[in-house]
Automatic annotation (TrEMBL):
Name of this chain's protein: Gamma-glutamyl-gamma-aminobutyrate hydrolase
One BP annotation, GO: polyamine catabolic process
UniProt keyword list: Hydrolase
Species in which this protein is naturally found: Mycolicibacterium poriferae
GO cellular component terms, semicolon-separated: cytosol
PANTHER family, sorted: GLUTAMINE AMIDOTRANSFERASE PB2B2.05-RELATED (PTHR43235:SF1)
Length: 261
């Protein structure tokens, strides 16, 4: 085994959830599972290895089996969560739920619950923050312009806006990014009622919740952080990815020691 092999064996394996929807490439127009490369480029630059997790029907046992080979988990961005998952009727601006989007919702809920049971590190990104909140019994504002009176959080046409974020003292998010940071945002939904066992760790100037994490009083050993913004859009700032990779490396070492004992 050469030095390169040893280096990759030390890198934690991070699972990233993917889209499941119709996609075009060349002459093909098919249902596909895919993820923008910038996500796993962020993981790689931070020292991890990426494993893509296509949405599929799973139960609790299958979700556990999928996580057995991983050291960390990222719930990525994408379509709106089905509001039926948090007991609300659909707002006209909310994406119409489809079979594939419901499969993805259920898949990510199952992975999150399995990760929390075993104490696996988790990073939620944009939709991922909303999925985490809903998985733990929270709700969402389905259309932020109705709440804050403007559409600057999602300008449309794939143009990201920059939001000024203020973090909460003593949180993991503040330890990672500091007291304030500028973030790339593209979301028309946000957390409303907070999920059970979560705390707010950052907000923007409109008072919109921009980051949450697990309450250390409820989950003292867990590293679970979710941000409403898109850190993968700023790969000159790897602090969130690096935090996940570091936590996942420590988790992987504990897992190996437990197996060896």
């Amino acid at each position: 085994m050469n030095g390169s092999d040893l280096e990759y064996r030390r890198r934690p394996a991070i699972g990233l959830t993917t889209y499941l929807q119709q996609a075009q490439t060349g002459v093909w127009d098919v249902r596909a599972s895919f993820l923008p490369a910038i996500y796993f480029e962020g993981v790689g630059l931070a020292g991890g290895m990426s494993v893509l997790l296509p949405p599929q029907p799973v139960d609790a046992a299958a979700a556990d089996a999928l996580l057995d080979g991983l050291d960390g988990l990222i719930i990525t961005g994408g379509r709106d969560v089905d509001p039926g998952a948090y007991g609300s009727p659909r707002h006209p601006a909310t994406d119409e739920p489809a079979d594939d989007s419901r499969i993805r919702d259920d898949f990510e809920f199952a992975l999150l619950h399995a990760a929390l049971r075993r104490g696996m590190p988790v990073l939620g990104i944009c939709r991922g923050a909303q999925v985490l909140n809903v998985a733990l019994g929270g709700t969402l504002h389905q259309h932020l312009p109705d709440v804050v009176g403007h559409s600057r959080h999602q300008q449309g046409n794939a143009v990201f806006s920059t939001s000024a974020i203020t973090t909460v003292a003593g949180t993991r998010v503040q330890a990672l990014v500091g007291a304030t940071t500028d973030a790339q945002c593209y979301h028309h939904q946000a957390i409303d009622r907070l999920g059970d066992g979560l705390i707010v760790s950052a907000s923007d100037t409109d008072g919109v919740i921009e980051a949450v994490e697990t309450d250390p009083r409820r989950y003292p050993e867990h590293w679970v952080v979710a941000v409403q913004w898109h850190p993968e859009e700023r790969l000159d700032d790897l602090r969130l990815f690096a935090g996940l990779v570091q936590a996942s490396s420590a988790y992987g070492q504990r897992k190996t020691q437990k197996v060896s004992a």
